[in-house]
Amino acid sequence: MQLAQVILNGLLLGGLYAAMAAGFSLVWGVLNIINIAQGSAVVLGSYVAYFAWRYAGLNPLLAVALAGPLLFGAGWVLQRFLIQRVIAAPVLITLVFTFGMDLILNNTMISLFTADYRKIEGVFPTVPLHFGALTLPVDRLLAAAAGIGVAFALHVYLHRSRLGRAIVAVRMDRQTAELMGVRVEIIYATTFGLGLAMAGVAGCLLAAIFPTSPLNSTYYLHIAFVACVLGGLGSVLGAVAGGLLLGVVESLGALFVGAEYGTTVAAVVLLLMLFTRPQGLLGRAGYE
């Protein structure tokens, strides 16, 4: 039962990772940009949830409706008027560009909010749910369900809406999509906006459980990167699968080799995946 509880805890944690990785994977797959600022965007979403709770008493799960549109707008503007200027440059250039964005955003948050950890409290029942010998913390259960639900909603949007299908088409073949009348620069801006919106959503969900600080940004970037590679580049459902797998691997690693080595075990699993199945669990070359 201890093993079952650890796996369950890992799945709940993986649900949060899924929302974090979905936007990162989408941007990387469509724009071929590794957004180093994704972790700081997650932290910014956490601050939106924290201040919405502190000054308006808003539940962090409801703050998703505030953080998502705010970060979508910021991402759309950033890509349309700044990143678009270097979109055709080598990957190293865009990597350095987003690294600079991350430095600016992270240091701005440290200057405005300091590096002190802040915690949202008293918004969820403290009594956990029990199923036999298994224990389900209510806050983690709600946050994980919301994270997976938002990621799945993004997947449905990509495949059922006109704009979503255009995003998938640009990922599959940018030149052909352009010849068919798709405005690629608008698709790029929308995709980057969706990536940051998902980061904001993930930040709100994480703020419901964990303390918030700009110091978390590097760890969140690491999680998004690993889950993206495990699940498959550009695949939203792959990001969900990668996030769930990463959560379970970290939990099992903490159980068997110690909590301080959980991330190391996840890195080993990542290397094994790259050697055995480099396209990830659900990834396929050239298709979302």
Overall description:
- With 288 residues, this protein is an all-alpha fold.
- The protein is 72% helix and 2% strand.
- The chain is built from eleven helices and two strands, in the order ααααββααααααα.
- A hairpin with a 2-residue loop joins strand 1 (129-131) and strand 2.
- The termini are far apart.
Care to count the β-strands? Answer: 2
Order of helices and strands: HHHHEEHHHHHHH
**Total helical segments:** 11
Structural class: mainly alpha
Helix content: over 70%
Tell me, rounded to a whole number, the average pLDDT.
90
Order of strands, widest sheet: 1-2
Sheet having the most strands: 2 strands, antiparallel
Distance between the termini: 38 Å
Radius of gyration: 18 Å
**Percent of residues in beta strands:** under 5%
The residue ranges in which pLDDT falls below 50 over 5 or more consecutive positions are none
Shape: globular
Q: What's this entry about, in short?
A:
The chain has 288 residues and is an all-alpha fold. It is 72% helix and 2% strand.
Spell out the key features of this protein.
288 residues, two-stranded antiparallel ribbon, 2 strands, 2% strand, 11 helices, mainly alpha
Topology summary:
Layout: H1 2-31, H2 38-56, H3 64-81, H4 91-113, E1 129-131, E2 134-136, H5 138-160, H6 162-172, H7 174-179, H8 184-207, H9 217-231, H10 236-257, H11 262-276
Helix pairs in contact: 1-5, 1-8, 1-9, 1-10, 2-3, 2-4, 2-8, 2-9, 3-8, 5-6, 5-8, 5-10, 6-8, 9-10, 10-11
